[in-house]
UniProtKB/TrEMBL annotation:
E.C. designation(s): 2.5.1.47
Organism lineage: Bacteria, Pseudomonadati, Bacteroidota, Flavobacteriia, Flavobacteriales
Catalysed reactions, as listed in the record: O-acetyl-L-serine + hydrogen sulfide = L-cysteine + acetate
Listed CDD domains: CBS_like
Protein name, UniProt field: Cysteine synthase
Pathway: Amino-acid biosynthesis; L-cysteine biosynthesis; L-cysteine from L-serine: step 2/2
Mitochondrion as UniProt keyword: no
């Protein structure tokens, strides 16, 4: 037995959509990443980035760590840094929900709020690395981000669908989840369709981004995504609320966006098995307007 908290990262449930999907010839499954110890899909990448850096001797308990994050990666890094006895500063957009800030601080992390969004947070962290001797995992260009999903998320989906998954739907932020899962699933069956989710122009959905070219994650490879569906802020909010009320799944706005996209996809298919990522838990958004 002797399972540690770290051993509980991954192997999240895959549950069937019972109400929202109205196409009887398509099965839609939700992968509940909020069941990870830190409450989101980012536990996987955070563990892989920290563990690999420690094993390679790139960091130790004397290192000054810093990372820009919109929220979930920061919580995951704070949790795992606490387990390994590491100090870390997390830089977030100042509009982040107070639950996220308080959770990171509870784990012992220093939290810096930046007025210029995630792009400003990324620039701030880079400056600290270049001029003040900090170490950043840089989730946007760190191959150990997407490799976490190649090693765990992809194999779990393949196993839990008995190799019958036909479509994988994921919101795109750092793009680590979709890159790693796509790489694995395509190796098993090149016909599996990988569908990315982005916001419509002018929409703001935490966790889903349409990056300016200068900030496009270096780990992103467009050839690993077969198609992209866009969702609006309104669609993402409405679907997050419906997920809770109709499926009993309390999740954040990016999960609402991914679900909206998955349902659009389902309505166009003659048959198929879709897996969509529910990337976190909704309780870290209760102070926002999401569920009002």
């Amino acid at each position: 037995m002797n399972k540690t908290l770290i051993d509980r990262i991954g192997n999240t449930p895959l549950v069937k959509c019972t109400t929202l999907n109205t196409n009887p010839n398509v099965d839609l499954y939700f992968k509940l990443e909020g069941n990870n110890p830190g409450g989101s899909v980012k536990d996987r990448a955070a563990l892989n980035m920290i563990k690999t850096a420690l094993d390679a001797g790139e960091i130790d308990k004397t290192s000054k760590l810093i990372e820009a994050t919109s929220g979930n990666t920061g919580i995951a890094l704070a949790m795992i840094a606490a387990i390994y006895g590491l100090d870390i500063e997390l830089v977030m957009p100042e509009k982040a929900t107070k639950e996220r800030v308080q959770t990171m601080r509870a784990y012992g992390a220093k939290v810096t709020l930046h007025p210029d969004g995630i792009e400003g947070a990324r620039d701030y962290a880079i400056d600290k690395v270049e001029n003040e001797g900090y170490y950043s995992f840089n989730q946007f260009s760190n191959d150990n981000n997407w490799k976490a999903h190649y090693k765990s998320t992809g194999p779990e989906i393949w196993r839990d669908t008995d190799g019958e998954v036909t479509h994988f739907v994921s919101s795109m932020g750092t793009t680590g989840t979709i890159m790693g899962t796509s790489t694995y699933l395509k190796e098993q069956n090149s016909d599996v369709q990988i569908v990315g989710v982005q916001p419509t122009d002018g929409s703001r959905i935490p966790g889903i981004r349409k990056w300016p070219k200068a900030y496009l994650p270096a780990i992103f490879d467009a050839s690993k995504v077969d198609s992209v569906l866009e969702v609006s802020t309104e669609e993402a909010i409405a679907m997050a609320r419906r997920l809770a009320k109709e499926e009993g799944i309390l999740a954040g706005m990016s999960s609402g966006g991914a679900t909206a996209a998955a349902l659009k996809l389902a309505s166009t298919l003659e048959s198929g098995i879709i897996v969509s990522i529910i990337c976190d838990r909704g309780d870290r958004y209760l102070s926002s307007e999401l569920f009002e």
